[in-house]
């Protein structure tokens, strides 16, 4: 379950990889005031190796999120169960190095702080060591974020209707704030086999062990705060659905390499993207259609499903039928990335 196809794929298209270090102007999105600030530059410092690179991947910077405070309570306890696994229907998955290094039991906050508290990050951004940006599958993975916060707790039902009518699967990254405002809808989406739910954080913050900021938004301040950002929403989603999400993407999509390694240690695969489909729900329909139309095998696309007034739904409605007729197939992250 999870593949979408109208006819066999005629040939594999190469994955579009951006150049490392490419700076792209970010558009305001999932933000209350539309202000965009350039992320601060990485600083030097000693480090210990914390994660293996997941391979190249590139794409424009994801726009900034809402900075409103979370209204739901953060869970105090870790989850005892390890997330499940799976692979694509074509048997092609990303290299084994992309598998999250999850233990049989999820470590406590104290264990995480003891293990990672002395490490100094060397990388900061969208594509850092340990973060997965694309798959080795012949499918394209569509991912949609729901960030929550003022103005960001809506649902693009038109977009979801298009995905369902075309039988196009997707992975939905949802934040605690969005779940709090849409608890019944979140449970409904979790029960739909066309979709899988993924963790988009508790406070919707950049994931940093030392308070690094992205787009003017301060990230998690220390390893303990990283743990809470990861596991608060993880526990909430497990409580709601009975399933522990396998994948994580932070607010702003920015990580440092230590925080990415912590994500893996806690049993989740840190995921970003190669194609920015909707510019944080700010692109016009024609732009969305054009960006989505350029996908190739193995791409991971980021867009949003919490902004029904955006051009996202219309853009996808234009692009998807053409892609399907051209032989492009789609799958959830759980179908194309290793367990």
Plain-language structure description:
It is globular and about 50 Å long. The model is unreliable at 1-98 (pLDDT under 50). Helix 1 runs antiparallel to helix 5. The strands form 4 sheets. It has a 5-stranded parallel sheet with strand order 4-3-2-11-10. A two-stranded antiparallel sheet has the order 1-8. The longest helix has 19 residues, at 223-241. Helices cover 26% and strands 10% of the residues. By secondary structure, the protein is an alpha/beta fold. The protein has a domain at 103-336: Glycoside hydrolase/deacetylase (TIM Barrel, Alpha-Beta Barrel), CATH 3.20.20.
Distance between the termini: 16 Å
At CATH level 3, the topology of one domain is TIM Barrel
Strand order, largest beta sheet: 4-3-2-11-10
- Mean pLDDT comes to 78
Largest sheet: 5 strands, parallel
Helix content: 25-40%
What share of residues are in beta strands? Answer: 5-15%
- Compute the CA-based radius of gyration: 18 Å
- Which class do the helix and strand fractions yield? alpha/beta
Quickly give the CATH architecture of one domain.
Alpha-Beta Barrel
Instruction: Please tally the helical runs, counting DSSP H or I stretches of 4 or more residues.
Output: 9
- Supply the CATH class of one domain: Alpha Beta
Low-confidence stretches: 1-98
Q: In one word, what is the shape?
A: globular
Strands, total number: 11
Instruction: List SSEs in N-to-C order.
Output: HEEHEHHEEEHEEHEEHEHH
Q: In the CATH hierarchy, what is the superfamily of one domain? A: Glycoside hydrolase/deacetylase
């Amino acid at each position: 379950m999870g593949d979408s196809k109208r006819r066999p794929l005629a040939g594999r298209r190469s994955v579009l990889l951006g150049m490392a270090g490419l700076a792209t102007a970010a558009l305001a999105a999932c933000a209350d005031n539309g202000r965009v600030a350039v992320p601060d530059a990485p600083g030097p410092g000693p480090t210990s190796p914390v994660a293996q690179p997941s391979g190249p991947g590139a794409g424009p910077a994801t726009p900034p999120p809402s900075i409103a405070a979370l209204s739901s309570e953060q869970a105090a306890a870790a989850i005892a169960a390890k997330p499940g696994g799976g692979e694509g229907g074509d048997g092609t998955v990303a290299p084994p190095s992309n598998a999250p290094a999850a233990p049989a039991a999820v470590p406590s906050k104290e264990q995480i702080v003891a293990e990672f508290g002395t490490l100094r990050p060397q990388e900061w951004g969208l594509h850092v060591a340990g973060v997965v940006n694309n798959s080795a599958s012949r499918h394209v993975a569509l991912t949609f974020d729901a960030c929550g916060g003022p103005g960001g707790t809506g649902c693009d039902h038109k977009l979801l209707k298009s995905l369902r009518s075309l039988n196009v699967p997707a992975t939905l990254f949802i934040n605690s704030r969005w779940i709090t405002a849409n608890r019944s809808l979140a449970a409904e989406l979790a029960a739909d086999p066309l979709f899988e739910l993924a963790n988009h954080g508790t406070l919707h913050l950049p994931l940093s062990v030392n308070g690094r900021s992205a787009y003017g938004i301060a990230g998690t301040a220390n390893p303990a705060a990283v743990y809470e950002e990861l596991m608060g929403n993880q526990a909430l989603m497990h409580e709601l659905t009975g399933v522990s999400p396998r994948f994580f993407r932070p607010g702003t999509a920015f990580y440092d390499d230590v925080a990415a390694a912590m994500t893996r240690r806690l049993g989740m695969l840190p995921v970003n993207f190669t194609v920015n489909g909707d510019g944080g729900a700010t692109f016009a329909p024609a732009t969305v259609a054009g960006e989505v139309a350029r996908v190739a095998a193995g791409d991971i696309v980021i867009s949003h499903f919490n902004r029904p007034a955006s051009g996202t739904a219309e853009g996808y409605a234009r692009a998807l039928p053409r892609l399907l007729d051209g032989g492009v197939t789609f799958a959830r992250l759980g179908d194309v990335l290793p367990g």
